[in-house]
Design brief:
This protein has seven helices and no strands. The protein is mostly helical. Helix 1 (about 10-40) packs across helix 2 (about 45-55), helix 5 packs antiparallel against helix 6 (about 160-180) and helix 5 packs parallel to helix 7 (about 190-200).
Length: about 200
């Protein structure tokens, strides 16, 4: 005897409908976010770094343009403050060891000032996002990038500490991503975005 195929009752289908709609909207949002990250990272100088950096935040799979702006600034800020702490620790170490590393101290002091500007600019960028202001994002990202660029330039001609070299390069790339994200909003500053690209090329 052929087995009967039972069909769900209309009531059961009706009860399942909200769950199905929720699943559909979740998948749709995730696909849109993936397309958004793809759109941003295709404009960055390092696609793989861009994707890896943005997806380091758990909000990225469902992020819209506004959330992605927060994420890009947040990742850049985390990098800048981490490098700033490293610079501070190195300066303290030199002070303890004496004046035999005076040249290194002067270079690190330039880096310290550069990262103070970078962190301050990224805090301002975050505050602007809180007030739903987007047109300053690219300019502030450019300012933060130039702080890392100044630090990199301070070690021109000699190899910088590996941690510092990576911190500088990563921050400049992250600020570039912030500049690209700024282009998603109307009234962005194209000059600042171009400036960040030039910094990455020159230094």
């Amino acid at each position: 005897m052929a087995s009967r195929v039972s069909c769900p009752s209309p009531l059961r289908l009706l009860l399942c409908l909200p769950l199905l709609l929720l699943l559909f909207s979740t998948f749709h949002a995730s696909d849109a976010a993936t397309a958004l990250v793809e759109k941003v990272c295709r404009q960055a100088s390092s696609y793989s770094f861009c994707v890896r950096s943005l997806y380091s935040d758990s909000r990225t799979p469902e992020a819209d343009e506004y959330t992605l702006a927060y994420i890009s600034v947040g990742v850049a800020y985390s990098n800048a403050t981490s490098t700033q702490r490293y610079i501070s620790d190195q300066l303290k170490s030199i002070e303890v060891s004496g004046s035999s590393h005076r040249d290194q101290q002067q270079r690190l002091q330039i880096c310290s000032r550069g990262y103070q500007r970078a962190v301050s600019a990224l805090v301002m960028a975050h505050n602007d996002l809180d007030s739903e202001t987007f047109f300053e994002l690219a300019r502030l990202a450019g300012k933060a990038s130039s702080g890392a660029g100044d630090c990199k330039a301070a070690f021109k001609g000699i190899p910088p500490p590996t941690v510092l070299a990576k911190g500088n390069q990563d921050l400049m790339h992250l600020c570039e991503i912030c500049g690209v994200v700024a282009k998603l909003f109307s009234g962005y500053d194209l000059y600042s975005v171009t400036f960040i690209h030039l910094v990455l090329i020159i230094v």
